[in-house]
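## retry 2 of 3
previous attempt timed out at serialization; input unchanged, resubmitting
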Amino acid sequence: MSQSAQLQTFYEDYYNDEVAKKRTITAVQTVDHIQKICGSSLGRILDVGAGDGAVLQEIERRKIATSIEAVEISSSGIERINSRNLTTLVRAQSFDGYKLPYTDKEFDIALSIHVLEHVEHERLFLRELGRVAKSVFIEVPLEHTFRLDRSIALGKPFGHINHYTFERFLSVLETSGLTPDKSRVFSNSLPYEQHVGGQAKGAIKHTIRSGALKVAPRLAPKMFVYLAAALCR
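## retry succeeded, writing output
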């Protein structure tokens, strides 16, 4: 079975009420990152690997897109997207993980949020995003820390097959024909850390990780997992 087929099987019924709260919290921090790097006027958006549409709903709430389209490999994800009744959503449709059913430069920006770490053929995927959009925004977890074996073990059940340092992330983009215009490393938000770790533990983790990133921005990602985002032209 191909990697894309394995992912489709895994995520077929993944998007349900149990994961909805976490995805709502992560959507808020994701759109914060998008606005910090891309600004607040995104035009026509394509979200590739849109999940359950939580990011799209947050984008619509902030009124930063003129229209949005979504592609997703999971039927449960597409159902969730459609159930949100987004007024700026043109359509949500399935795709095979690589081929996008759009013409060249049809969109102002293509988004791919926490998808690339799942993709078997990263460069094929990225080149297709670059084909259909004038700009591409990518976000991934930086899991290639000094405890890489732990990152692999924790990510494997969720289909994480690529593990990035910030430098490797940028290299993959550049060798896919994309030119990173703006890029940045982020720590997870306080609400996210408290959701996954509890109020007290989450607050401590957030303080340590965000503080380390400010004091030692090159060293911190070797110690802790962060998020990397880039806007490519």
